């Protein structure tokens, strides 16, 4: 399923040049599709992160922003 997932959206992802193929495969691993993604207004980010961390989600982090530009995901190693 990883290959099929990558085929469906891989052209909208820009992995870091040093990202190894095994790590790239993790980006589309079907076992991770149950992760939690939260979207909120920019001004609500600090409170959202505090709330998540208070409830045990210590690794909660901002991973991107939504814009009106062409969709692309930049992956840093």
What's the short version?
With 77 residues, this protein is α+β, with helices and mostly antiparallel strands.
Which strand order do you get reading across the main beta sheet? 1-2
Strand content: 5-15%
Taking Cα atoms only, what radius of gyration do you get, to the nearest Å?
A: 15 Å
Largest sheet: 2 strands, parallel
Protein described:
The chain is an alpha+beta fold and 77 residues long. Helix content is 31%, strand content 8%. It contains 3 helices and 2 strands, in the order αβααβ. A two-stranded parallel ribbon has the order 1-2. The two termini are 23 Å apart. The model has no long low-confidence stretch (mean pLDDT 84).
List keywords for this structure.
single chain, alpha+beta
Write the layout of secondary structure elements.
Elements: H1 2-9, E1 13-15, H2 21-26, H3 45-54, E2 73-75
Parallel strand pairs: 1-2
